Amino acid sequence: MTTPTASTPAATVAETLDALTFAGAREQAHALAEGRVSASALLEHVLARIALFDAELNAVPVVDAERARAAAREADAALARGERRPLLGVPVTVKESFDVAGLATSTGNPAYAGNVATADAPAVAALRAAGAVIVGKSNVPLSLADLQSYNAVHGLTRNPWDPARTPGGSSGGSAAALAAGYVALELGSDIGGSIRIPAHFTGVYGHKPTYGLVSMRGTGVPSGRHAERDLTVGGPMARTAADLELALELLLNRDPLQSKAWRATLPPARHQRLADFRVLLIDHWPGTERTRSERLVGERLLERLRTQGARVSRPQDLPPGLLPDLAAQHRTYRSLLGSSLVEPPPLSDAAQARLAALAPEDRSADAAWLRSFTLPHREWLRDNEHRLALRHQWERLFEAFDVVVTPVAPTPAFAHDHSEPKDARQFPVQYEDGVRPLGFLGLFTWAGLPVLPGLPATSFPLGLDSDGLPIGAQAVGPYLEDRTPIAFAHLLERAYGGFEAPPAFAVGRAL
Question: What are the residue boundaries of the Amidase domain, all occurrences included (predicted)?
Answer without folding.
Answer: 42-483
